[in-house]
Design brief:
With 104 residues, this protein is mostly helical. Helices cover 72% and strands 0% of the residues.
Length: 104
């Protein structure tokens, strides 16, 4: 349910609330999954928080979670929202190197 709450906050443009919920989740010692991180990165994209999205992506990988197409797309969107096109292209290349096929 935490991932669903984070996603709901993201859809309403409430990035800070999504981050608060994530903090609560961590305090409960619950482990986030790729869906959780994707929702967080999408929330960061809506709020143009590129650095924070990159940090969540790194944290996800540090926790041995394999990013999927949604996670990569969320990070690329965050980079685009923050006018970091070069970083978005770099992430796209990394995605393809990991054999995650781009979609439309």
């Amino acid at each position: 349910t935490y991932s669903a709450l984070i996603s709901a906050c993201e859809k309403e443009g409430r990035a800070e609330k999504a981050l608060e919920i994530f903090s609560e989740m961590r305090e409960q010692e619950l482990k986030p999954n790729v869906i959780t991180y994707s929702a967080l990165m999408s929330a960061c994209a809506r709020d143009s928080q590129v650095q924070r999205a990159l940090e969540f992506f790194a944290q996800m990988q540090h926790e041995a979670l394999q990013p999927d197409l949604v996670a990569y797309s969320s990070l690329i969107s965050a980079c685009g929202a923050g006018n970091c096109v070069a970083k978005a292209l770099e992430v796209s290349e990394q995605m393809q190197q990991q054999n995650v096929a781009p979609n439309l």
